[in-house]
Amino acid sequence: MRWDSDGGGWPEYVPVATRIARAEKKAAKRAKAAGRQPEPVKITGSGIAKTFWGKSWCQNLESYSDFSSRLSRGRTYARNGSVVDLLLTRGRIDAVVAGSMAYDVAITIAALPPRAWRAIKADCATSIGSLVDLLSGRLADDVMRRLARPGDGMFPGPREVTLKCSCPDGAQFCKHLAAVFYAIGNRLDTRPELLFLLRGVDQTELVAAATKESVSRAVRGDAAHALADDDLAGIFGIEIAGGNPPPPARPAGKPAAKSKPKPKPTRTKQQPKAKPAKPKPAKRSGGKPRPPVTE
């Protein structure tokens, strides 16, 4: 404590580098107890965030009128590396921020309501091609606007956020909390999937919904390359209502069996009829025939 000539005092100035080093020791000790490594936020360049996800997060933060008075100090703290550890888990953010002391920050974020999530999936189903496109932000403008739309998009509103900081500032939203919020925007630049984790939803469901819708449109005939019923029947070997059933599939490698001709009845040769034997005349002794006897 330094004292002026009137007997008043103010805290002694501590260089930012010293504050950060002190906070890093606390963060390292706490992270070790949890079995992990600290995850500091290092911001380089002119902007805190550079991608669609990071910029949209920061823009959403700056729309909170209740937080506006502390945002400028929060940006300064985030830029100079005061957020020495930032951990994002399902619905929760924990951080250590360097200030006059090392302060603990805890933020909880409500899960995205199921109805809102279903609406997002339905609205984006026809425009999301892959998970890579989704997370890299290579999406159609209408999809980006839908995901970042205030009120029913992916980003939380003030009433969905609960804030806590160990600093003595009595304000609901102090500069340490503001620094953490900006640090989240920077983290989303490289790990946008963390936003879905914070809101308690699975980003792969968006791609699954888009895939299901594409297949459904193809079957219904809504798509330019829709499959006809005959094509589907031939490919899958199923009968489509209103169409002709496909011929039964033959097992591969076996030719169709040929019907054997009926055997011709065999003819048996008839034995020639035996001729009746002619009676032989009786012989007499002496060699001469006996004359017939007359009465």
How would you summarize the topology of this molecule?
Layout: E1 2-3, E2 9-10, H1 16-33, H2 52-62, H3 68-79, E3 83-89, E4 92-98, E5 102-109, H4 114-124, H5 131-136, H6 141-147, E6 161-165, H7 175-190, H8 193-198, H9 204-220, H10 229-236
Regions with little confidence, pLDDT below 50 for 5+ residues: 213-238
Spatial sequence of strands, sheet with the most strands: 3-4-5-6
Query: How many strands?
Result: 6
Order of helices and strands: EEHHHEEEHHHEHHHH
Helicity, in percent?
25-40%
Question: How far apart lie the N and C ends?
Answer: 188 Å
- Rg for CA atoms: 47 Å
Q: Biggest sheet, in brief? A: 4 strands, antiparallel
Q: What is the 3D form?
A: elongated
Compute the number of helices.
10
Mean pLDDT: 79
Instruction: Report the oligomer.
Output: single chain
Structural class: alpha+beta
What share of residues are in beta strands? Answer: 5-15%
Quick overview of this protein structure:
The protein has 295 residues and is an alpha+beta fold.
Structure write-up:
With 295 residues, the chain is α+β, with helices and mostly antiparallel strands. It has a domain at 13-49 and 65-111 and 160-201. It has ten helices and six strands. It has helices spanning 16-33, 52-62, 68-79, 114-124, 131-136, 141-147, 175-190, 193-198, 204-220, 229-236; strands at 2-3, 9-10, 83-89, 92-98, 102-109, 161-165. Strands 3-4-5-6 form a four-stranded antiparallel sheet. A two-stranded antiparallel sheet has the order 1-2. Helix 3 crosses helix 7 and helix 4 (114-124) packs across helix 9 (204-220). The chain is elongated, with a radius of gyration of 47 Å. The chain starts with a strand and ends in a 59-residue tail after the last helix. 24% of the residues are buried.
